[in-house]
Amino acid sequence: MTTYAALLRGINVGGNKKVPMAELRSLLQGLGYTGTATYLQSGNAVFTAETGDEESLAAEISRAIEKHFGFDVDVLVRDHAYLRAVREACPFPAAELEAKQLHVTYFSKPVTEERFTGLDRAAFAPEDFRLGDRVLYLYAPDGLGRSKLAETLSRPRLLKGLIATTRNWNTVVKLVELTEGEPSGR
Fold first, then answer.
1. Kindly report the CA angle at 20 between 18 and 26, in degrees rounded to 5?
2. pLDDT > 70: what percent of the chain?
3. Does the structure show a pLDDT above 90 at 10?
4. Cα separation of 60 and 175, whole Å?
5. Which of 81, 128, 134, 152 is least surrounded by Cβ atoms within 10 Å, i.e. has the fewest?
């Protein structure tokens, strides 16, 4: 049995793609997953599965969401070990920053620096980013909503061929905690 987090992209934002968390938990249980839990309304679910890999689990959840809710949602699935490694590999001093200043964008596949070669990083200082294992760590001292770098990094040409979804540092830490053991249905 492995505990995973499912990261749903773009749900419950501005009244679009509404996915009630109770229904999402029921949907996951209907797929045979146990220990289902959700965190916040922004598409973070935790579950335990006996078999499957991250990609096949994500595809199964995405298909089930489309069948149940009638719209397509990109889903990334990551196991506890990966989520913990992302937290531990943070290149910024997370303990010294406010959670709103630090974000992680999870990618569907590895990303190299080459994707960002045309970006003048110095022009965005003190904002900055670093790449990790299928993630981008973003330091935005004034928060994500005011970040010019975040706006630039989310442009379709930089994300071409990827599923990308961003979480603030509090959520990154909470997902590690929630996937440590089999969660109780929340």
1. 130
2. 97
3. no
4. 21
5. 81
CA 153 to chain centre: 15
Residue matched to tokens 């699935």 = 77
Mean pLDDT of 11-34: 89
Compute the distance between CA of residue 1 and CA of residue 50 in angstroms, rounded to an integer.
4
Structure confidence at residue 122 (pLDDT): 95
- Within 8 A by CB and 6+ apart from 34, the residues are 1, 47, 48, 49, 182
Angstrom CA distances, 86 to 9, 16, 44, 65, 143, stand at 18, 29, 16, 27, 20
How confident is the model over 76-101, as a mean pLDDT?
95
Question: Is the model's pTM score more than 0.85?
Answer: yes
- Half-sphere exposure at residue 28, Cβ-oriented, CA atoms within 13 angstroms: 32
Which residue is listed with tokens 């053991």? 181
